Here is the input.
Amino acid sequence: MRRSQPALLFFACCAFALTTAPLHAQGQRPAGTGATIRAGEQCPPGMTEVRPRNCQPPTLPAPSIVDYRPRSTLVAPVHTVPRAKFPAIDFHGHPTNQLNSEAGLVELGAALDGLNVRMMIAANNTSGDALVRQMAVVRASPTMRDRVRILTGVNFAGVGPGWAAKAVAQLEADVEAGAVGIGEIGKGLGLSMRKSDGSRLQIDDPALTPLWNAAARLKLPVFIHTADPQEFWQPIDNANERWLELALFPGRRYPADQFPSFETLMKERDNLLRNNPRTTFVIAHLGWHANDLGRLAKMMDEMPNLHAEVGAVLYDIGRQPRAAHDFFVRYQDRILFGKDSFQPEEYPYYWRVFETRDDYFDYYRDYHASWKLYGIDLPDMVLKKVYFGNALRITSRLPQGGWPR
Ligand SMILES: [Zn+2]
Here is the structure.
């Protein structure tokens, strides 16, 4: 139902009329508990539109959205996909302790084997001594030496005179130590980081240009997470798609008086991509535009250096199976698989969305989405590119041998 236009609000408040005779005459509810509305208006709180313009409250107390878990009675084909159809590279890996010891790597390898994830790219911003240590563990591993690679981090503290030269020198040292790219640059860039002069560090600040130039020169993809889902900037009311998440995690709210707006951050990010066309960027979480693939398509068309990663936005891909299918086919050379938070039992939801035509199945995290998912049924050629081909192409330092053709 559409929301009322502002001009109608005054009338909306006065238009509720108690007791709608026709419904009462049908014996559907006791008198005096309903309301009528005008076309385009919403029912008052606690009521639902049971017939055009006739509102009625339930006769039982309504369950909260936390507890309402209806059983689906839909009987439809089910194709669970525990292992990806083709070996995958997780471009958005966040292993925790697994990279610190051979035992940890072996444990990681066992979990990845069960999913057919052949390679994990650790996007933990690991730089300096920590990177050297982890790469030594990886290189010494008989079974995992070609299955883990690491993105280096950038220390954005104190951006100002002298910062860029230090950052580029550290980047070169980290590449020497084995880093294959940069990332994940976190949302703090743009949202909260400050320059040495105290001002907010904008994503498109020219002081960062030498870093992006170095990434282009060293052929390092830059993996960057900007902002968060746009609902995190909206009022936490009954119309907010992410009400539950915002209520669970108050730190995800971005009040306008404390943070730049969603659109400000998107604009700065787009400037970054435009201003550095020789640098390869991978925007995490489909740039938080999985809910607006037309917008992402425009960006893809305008900026050939842009790639996008799918982690943690499966709920938006799987709720628009036809549009998502077409988007993935059209931009098949620009989309990378990545999972984000390392929870092995969650990967098969991605395989099922990407590989099947299944209808209306559960997603793994209620607080991301109150809806079900549908398979987008990608052709094998597209799956191969999304699962591993695109990551291999844009990350020349990855072990390139042994992948399917
Ligand atoms: Zn991440």
About this structure: The pocket of zinc ion is lined by residues 92, 94, 123, 184, 225, 340 (CB under 6 Å). The radius of gyration is 25 Å.
